[in-house]
Every structure is written in C-alpha cells, then in structure tokens.
C-alpha cells in the first residue's frame, strides 16, 4: 500500500499557495483526484480539497482545463 504523500514528505499544513503540489492531485481536466487513487488520508484529502478550491477562487489554479 502506498503511503500518504503529505506524511511521507513531512508536510504538516497543505497550503493553497503551493500550486505545484496541488497540481499533482488534479487530473488533466483539472478535477481533484479521489483519495482512493492518490492514497491520501481522509483528513488530508479534505484539507487538499479546500486548498484547491481556495486556490481556484483566487485564480492560482484553473477551474477547468480545455
């Protein structure tokens, strides 16, 4: 079983300004990938989702990639 990306890299806080890390958890269309595919814990998945949504709202990430 794969380890959680954030605990493996000792990331305590998922920051919405860290766009490069957030892009790893988006599929080519810009959707958030499920925790079953990324093996991120439920707690970190919720934090990841809110960070992605906040980054989208501020224009750091696109809502849809065409």
UniProtKB/TrEMBL annotation:
Family: Belongs to the bacterial ribosomal protein bS18 family.
Known role: Binds as a heterodimer with protein bS6 to the central domain of the 16S rRNA, where it helps stabilize the platform of the 30S subunit.
Quaternary context: Part of the 30S ribosomal subunit. Forms a tight heterodimer with protein bS6.
Domain of life: Bacteria
One GO cellular component, as annotated: ribosome
Organism, as annotated: Candidatus Nomurabacteria bacterium GW2011_GWF2_43_8
Gene Ontology terms for molecular function: small ribosomal subunit rRNA binding; structural constituent of ribosome
Sorted UniProt keywords: Ribonucleoprotein, Ribosomal protein, RNA-binding, rRNA-binding
Descriptive protein name: Small ribosomal subunit protein bS18
GO biological process: translation
The gene coding this protein: rpsR
Alphabetized HAMAP family for the sequence: Ribosomal_bS18
